[in-house]
Prior knowledge:
This protein is an alpha+beta fold.
Amino acid sequence: MEFNFNCEDALGCDIKGFAILEGTFEQNIRQCFKLHVNGILDLMGEQSSKEQGLNIVKTSSHKFFTSHDRIFIKADKNVVIGFLRVGKRKLFLKDENNNYYNEEPTSVIDFYVCKKYERQGHGKVIFLF
């Protein structure tokens, strides 16, 4: 997804174009880039939900920055290629005796690679980052 500003600078990407955002650390984003980062998360989250055919948006700047989740995001200059959002979620599981138990594993909350960049290995690289 293309933006009219340098996404790598706004997200604080490393030399390979990757950034890791921490939900509860919104204050670590430089003030001059907060609106850009919020816009990136909101648009990418909307696009992700649309492509998955969901009725709700799973990732927005508000939802993310009020969570303990992490977002791994890849950008190239003024383009955001994709993102992976992970976080701990309570799950009710069954054991081999059909007894329920509760776990809180790290789970994939949302994942999206822009259509233009699909099937080029970007999703795999984001997961492996």
